[in-house]
Amino acid sequence: MMARRRGRNATAGTVFLVGAGPGDAGLLTLRGRRALAEADAIVVDHLAPVRLLRYARPDAEVYDVGKQAGHHRVPQRDIEALLIRLAKAGKTVVRLKGGDPFVFGRGSEEALALEAAGVPWQVIPGVTSALAVPACAGIPVTGRGVASGFTVVTGHECQGSSGIDWAGLAQSPGTLIILMGMGALQTIVDRLVAAGRSPDTPAAVIRWGTRAAQRTVRARLIDLPAAVRAAGLRNPAVIVIGEAAAHPPSLAWFERQPLFGRRILVVGESATITLEGAESLEALGAEAVDLPLDSAVVVHREAAAEWAASAMGSSEAEREGRVGPVVWWLRTAAGVQAVWQALRSAGADARALARVYLVAEGPDAAAALAGIGLNPDVTLEHGADGEGVLPENAAAVWLEAVDGLPHPAASIRRRHQAPDLPAPRRLRLWQADVAAIRLRLQRMLANVEHADGGSSGAPGASGVSGGSGGIDLVWALSPVSAAVWRMVCRTWLGDGAAVPVCVGGQEDVLRRLADGGCAGTESVIGAWEAGR
């Protein structure tokens, strides 16, 4: 925290032009990730993967200025004015641009505008789609005896007069890579062939390269426009022309990963554990969207204050003279944080817990306690009844109630065995903020491509119901996460959210997916659906 705070102060009023890479969240540079974590304001392009906002602060301002071919939601000059205004307000600003900011991204125009306005700025280069997308399609753009070089041009400048020497490109023996050229593909092919390029030259078009929706069409140059139309491909796509495109499809390693084509929503109690799960899935080829619940809860402050007071001698048990330990049975990370904040607000700290017997149900609650320097006396698995773990002389039992989770049976059994044990006090310490969850999902699923080629970028789209948004599976990392997700479905998405839900720890799930390949993936998902 201190390092980030120093960084934010040092960069106040600075604009960072950050290359987001071609789409795979793992291709963001380490420096770009750090800039996102420190940003007060983030100005996002259409092609910048919005999943990268997982690395941003929850309170960061996000401005969507996405531009698509033929449709500029925000004019370029207005974007430049926005960057200047935010920086002059003392904010650390990230301008998140797809690919590399200085490769056909109009980053140079923004840099010139910032320089003219006297605003400090820096460039954080990104992985350009011109190289990453062919690589993920199994097309090395250079190779001994195949292509000794490559040329990258923009397809926007193929209409009418332009500065591109198409005749020279037609005669070049290297690989020709064209970005933003789908709208003029037929014209590009006609010009190259007319200038002497062989109509039999190998060529390929890769759409949504490095993402779960990646699709590749290979054909002879002369046949490429018709093949692309037949396949229904459109922007965003990269066009590759040259002998390099003749490499066999067997080199398309990206599409052979066990979870390629899968989009999985990961729901967890904390940002750390959820991000870990999402990145584990992405390592297997999935496109993961992470939904941490710790930033989307509403704390019941009165209940938390009452709970915290039980450790400080002001509880009913203390007033009645029962002096045994007070049992705190905490079941969620959010519950731990709610009680801890209430304790601190009352001017107390960990010393007030000398008489508290801590029971942590589930690894998230245990990790949250460890995060504030407390080791639970007992750690139970979710759903365990905990019979026999309560101290015989307990003065009071405080049990965290969680919507959608059954109450542990231990307290009831314990009461039958020890009638003097006080009845457990059940309190709901928090509830999910459905509006915050909805906002995050809509932001994270914006412009996510469907497997059938559709898009969920329309405003107000749920992004998950009925399979829209391309979500194939919801991975709830704990029963708590699953309960919250099902509640979100009931209150917001209704019966349309027919997406299978998996509940489980990471190691078991990932091992089965990695070992089973694509067939294993289908069987695991089938088992999850049957067990819901």
Q: How many DSSP-defined strands? A: 23
What is the CATH superfamily classification of the largest domain? Tetrapyrrole methylase, C-terminal domain
Gyration radius from CA atoms, angstroms: 28 Å
In CATH terms, what is the fold-level topology of the largest domain? Methyltransferase, Cobalt-precorrin-4 Transmethylase, Domain 2
Could you characterize what this model shows?
There is one protein chain. The chain is α/β, with parallel strands linked by helices. It has four domains: 113 residues, Cobalt-precorrin-4 Transmethylase, domain 1 (3-Layer(aba) Sandwich); 127 residues, 2-Layer Sandwich (Methyltransferase, Cobalt-precorrin-4 Transmethylase, Domain 2); 115 residues, no CATH class; 117 residues, Rossmann fold (3-Layer(aba) Sandwich). Helix content is 34%, strand content 19%. It contains 17 helices and 23 strands. The strands form six sheets. A five-stranded parallel beta sheet has the order 3-2-6-1-7, with helices on both faces. It has a five-stranded mixed beta sheet with strand order 8-9-12-10-11, sandwiched between helices. Helix 12 links the parallel strand 16 and strand 17. It is elongated. It starts with a helix and ends with a helix.
Quick structural gist:
The protein is α/β, with parallel strands linked by helices and 532 residues long. The chain has 17 helices and 23 strands. It is 34% helix and 19% strand.
